[in-house]
Amino acid sequence: MSEVRLLAPELREQIFEMLRDEALPVQPFAVGYGDFAVAADALTTLPRTNAATYQLRHAGAEAGQRDGQPVRLLLRRDSPTKLGHAFQYPHGWRDVVYNLGSTWQTDTEILIGFRMMNGGAGRNRWFGRRDGKLETRTPFAMEQLATRLRQELRHAFAAENQAADAGLPDQWLTVARLPLATPTMLQATAETKTLLLRQLSQALAIGEVLRRQSFNEETPDSNLRPMTYPLNQILYGPPGTGKTYSTTAWALALLNPNNLPVEEVVAHYDGNEAAMQQAFEQHRQQGQIGFVSFHQSFGYEDFVEGIKPMLNDEDEEDGQLSYQIEAGIFKRMAERAIYGLQLQRQARELAAGVSSAPTVDFDTLFTLFVDDLVERLQRGGPGSIVLPSSQKNVVFKGLSPTGALRFHHQDGDAAQNIAFSKNSLGKMYRAFGVPENPLLNQDIAQVVGGGNLSVARAVFQEFKKFEQQAHAQPAVNQQTVVNLTEQLHRALTQPKLASSIARNFDFTQITPNDYAEAPRFVLIIDEINRGNVASIFGELISLLEDDKRGRLRVTLPYSKEEFTVPPNLYVLGTMNTADRSVEALDTALRRRFSFHELAPQPQLLRQDVAGVNLRALLAALNERLETLLDRDHRLGHAWLLSVTGIDQLRDVFSHKIIPQLQEYFYGHWGRMGQVLGSAFVRRVASTTALMPGFDEDGEGGEPQPRYELTPAGEWTAATFQKLYAH
After folding, report:
1. Predicted confidence band at 591 (pLDDT cuts at 50, 70, 90)?
2. Res 175: pLDDT
3. Helix, coil or strand: residue 277
4. CB neighbours of 149 closer than 8 A, spacing ≥ 6?
């Protein structure tokens, strides 16, 4: 493992000198991505003011060509530390910048690359623009393009990122490793120079192609195709087909704005399950993916909303037990999705020069305001929060047992308690306007009564300031990128804010492009058939339909709030067809979900494991099961995927396959024998006679035969071969 450190300044200069050195010829190379190819066999230094520019040429012609247009491939030193690599079209630049001031090295290599954090790579200039035009993408669309670029670059430069370098920042992406002669001396050779240019050209070609592909010429105002996946779908199949495992790829496909097929999303990761899981986890942490498993005791109160007990104090002995209405995972996901629609609409309006702040009700604002005060007090300690007033400044002390705000005057007795209630603040909020307007004592007294008017004035002014911050919108212009990921995070950190916006959201102001470009959300329901679906969904079952989303509202029984399901929330369920609870699956739910079968795939298994053909083995077992039972009671391939030896095969049969067959044929050992044969199930002779005189029902019928499993240690390769040899 190599220890990394920031690139030494002298090495940075050596890189620029190597590129400038015409005595080091560029060796011919060709790279490409999609329909874009870059080839070069020479490096020419071009004069330029305040910077050195280098032009790659191919056989005396231009470096590349796209749609019949000549393209020049250039290298520029844009600043003392930045190396720009660009295609120059007749109408503009497409470039990516490498900051060598924040590049890393070991004692043997220089790691050329950049950090590919969310939104960070999106600031490269090719991302948001059509040819010759200013940015035309929404911020979220740019983030999605950045995500795809990260995936493609990681795939293209997997070899450069496999080495374990200790200390590299998270999400660092290496595109080239330049060899060092010594820890402070670059191997400035033609090979090193060509290596750098080839790798940078490959990265730039990938970015340029993805940029162009992401614009859909049929929808010039949007780079996204309409949502084509069903909003509600269930992955179903027999056990062991990887239904829960597959939800990772399905969720990423549903969240992808380009509506890529699941197979294409999986292909992007090229078998790198860790990278796929990392992408899934990033979306989960920012609230776009939720996961829940249904079971027999799971109910409406857990899924939508219910009354839950809570202690008012962290000390369980002294705390007072109270009850509050708490949102379930489905309601929280729906509120986050509506918040995402609000952010998309807000971004569109801001880009058009229109300001549209979300509406947040007073109750939500007060709750957030109190949470903020308490958090600041915990961080700063007693006396740390002073609210200014035109007469006497007041100090926030905390909350009373009834939830009122407690203060004392800054120049008064700290032991004094002056309470100010939510009710009084609400009266002032409805009576007065912005805090800049002067508040006269007589005006305040008429609203909240006399006494401690300085406290009332200070609290109201602080509350209005907090309201402005809560409604603050980022300044957006043609050169500014809004980090929608950070905005979405507020729905997690301030769920009451998202809930308030969801209650007051006007779906009529959303355009079709808003629906297509808004952040997407996925709720995964594992084992959806194991819960009482009618009871869990309740009245919301009707809201799942596509034409009801965002249009039909119902009043929730506990909170009495109006609620609807937004069209950017996908519900993805899994269902084990061998589970007896499938028969009880609610008919109304069946009508509202699309079903996608995940069948056993023997072709994914190895054909030779110690002489055993796993593909043929699974196919033979499933053919017998389908004959004796039905196709819903087959065996999945997932259990056998990791089998590489005979011992592992014995283990899977002992702990997975045979117990599953025992469940299928409960009490019918003869049927198990028909599936597995005498090498696995054998009849046992009785050694103890039955007591006479007790023939069942007086019929004198034959006693039931006895069976047992053969010891796993007796199972050899030949034993397993017999399963598919007939």
Report:
1. confident
2. 92
3. helix
4. 116, 121, 206, 207, 210
Label the pairing between strands 104-105 and 92-99: unpaired
CA–centroid distance for 390 within its chain: 49
Per-residue pLDDT at 226 exceeds 70: no
Binned at pLDDT 50, 70 and 90, residue 177 comes out as very high
- Characterize the bridge pairing of strands 594-597 and 232-237: parallel
Antiparallel, parallel or unpaired: β 232-237 and 554-555:
unpaired
> What is the model's pLDDT at position 303?
94
CA distances from 346 to 26, 137, 332, 469, 480 (A): 50, 14, 21, 16, 14
For the segment 501-519, what is each residue's pLDDT rounded down to a tens digit? Answer: 888 788 888 888 788 778 8
- Which stretches within 239-328 are classed as H helix? 243-255, 262-269, 273-285, 300-303
| Residue 310 pLDDT greater than 80, yes or no | no
Helix (H, G, I), strand (E, B) or coil at 179: strand
- Closest by CA to 75, choosing from 59, 96, 58, 91, is 96
Backbone angles phi, psi at 94, to 5 degrees: -135, 110
Q: 220: which strand partners? A: none
Range of lowest pLDDT (239-243, 315-319, 403-407): 315-319
Confidence band, pLDDT 50/70/90 cuts, at residue 140: low
pLDDT at 458 (0 to 100): 87
Estimate to the nearest angstrom the gap between the alpha carbon of 170 and the chain centroid: 17
DSSP 365-428: HHHHHHHHHHHHHHHH-TT--EE--SS--EEEEEE-TTS-EEEEETTS-TT--EEE-HHHHHHH
Q: Is 481 helix (H, G, I), strand (E, B) or coil?
A: coil
CB 267 within 8 A of CB 604: no
pLDDT average, residue stretch 337-353:
78
* Amino acid code (one letter) for 305: E
Instruction: Measure the CA–CA gap between 683 and 666, rounded to whole angstroms.
Output: 16
Bridge partners, 399 (sequence order): 405
Helix (H) or strand (E) holding 692: none
Q: Where does 433-553 have alpha helices with state H?
A: 441-448, 453-470, 484-493, 495-504, 512-517, 533-537
Radius of gyration of the chain measured on its C-alpha atoms:
33
